[in-house]
Design a protein that fits this description.
By secondary structure, the chain is α/β, with parallel strands linked by helices. The protein has 6 helices and 5 strands, in the order βαβαβαααβαβ. A 5-stranded parallel β-sheet has the order 3-2-4-1-5, with helices on both faces.
Length: 158
């Protein structure tokens, strides 16, 4: 199995889905708590529309809400960003308090081996984790990818 991450900000609809197809993604894991975005620019990743499009591309969809950061964890990053004058879409990295909390409260409770077994049984080989941020290291999906990298799987940010 190979694992990928991708975001949507600064991407067009065409480019977004082309990345999935060009990399042979067969399972799309949505790791957002709220599966929608405001405005028309990125409305193609609102849950119902996204799932409909993925179905036409023969890409399975799974919502892994268990990998979404809680509001309390998100608040740690928002507080850090505010204290340092960083706008959300300009963030380049996650702060240490966020990383520690996400790792302890989310990743340590996630059954990587169970997920691998489930996906293997379903014959998924190229799995993408999705959230909205453009910069992978400014998003929890980079932390998720590290868990699979540590389990010995090749990983790549798209």
């Amino acid at each position: 199995m190979k694992f990928y991450t991708l975001g949507v900000y600064n991407s067009t609809e065409e480019a977004f889905f082309e990345k999935l197809m060009a990399n042979g993604i067969d399972l799309f894991c949505d790791i957002r708590m709220r599966r929608g975005v405001r405005g028309a620019t990125y409305s193609f990743v609102n849950s119902a529309r996204l799932q409909e499009k993925l179905k036409t591309l023969d890409i399975a969809y799974e919502h892994l809400e268990s990998l979404a950061p809680s509001p309390e964890i998100r608040q740690l990053q928002l507080d850090h960003d505010k204290a340092h004058g960083v706008k959300q879409r300009e963030r380049n990295a996650l702060c240490e308090p966020y990383i520690r909390a996400y790792t302890a409260e989310v990743l340590q409770g996630f059954d990587v081996d169970g997920a691998l077994a489930r996906w293997s049984a379903a014959r998924h080989q190229r799995i993408a984790f999705f959230c909205v941020e453009d910069v992978p290291h400014a998003c929890h999906r980079s932390l998720v990818l590290n868990a699979f990298r540590e389990a010995g799987h090749p990983c790549e940010h798209l």
